[in-house]
Amino acid sequence: ISSWWSGSKPEAESCPYDPTDPKQNPLNPKGLKPCCACPETKRPRDDCFLKYDPSEAPEKCKGVVEQHLKCMRGFGFKV
């Protein structure tokens, strides 16, 4: 039995995973935010979606999207 007087925190209040915190995520030592983590794959992904019609972009851009996701996961982001 735990109460608010005991001083111990329940498990549910522990810190949630923060991929931008280098202490929690050694894959991201600079603490980059998702918007800044993979510019070398983000720009080609965005350009691809602007280049094609929305109905065909998901299929045509699949490769660049997969590269971007791989890069983001490499930084410890859960995407």
From TrEMBL:
SUPFAM superfamilies linked to this entry: Cysteine alpha-hairpin motif (SSF47072)
Protein name: Cytochrome c oxidase copper chaperone
Disordered: annotated segments: 1-27
GO molecular function, one term: copper chaperone activity
Superkingdom of the source species: Eukaryota
Cell compartments where the protein resides: Mitochondrion intermembrane space
A Pfam family reported for this protein in Swiss-Prot or TrEMBL: COX17
Alphabetical keyword list: Chaperone, Copper, Disulfide bond, Metal-binding, Mitochondrion
InterPro entries: Cys_alpha_HP_mot_SF, Cyt_c_oxidase_Cu-chaperone
Similarity comment: family membership: Belongs to the COX17 family.
GO BP terms, alphabetized: mitochondrial respiratory chain complex IV assembly
Binding residues annotated for Cu cation, in chain numbering: 35-36
Record-level GO cellular component terms: mitochondrial intermembrane space
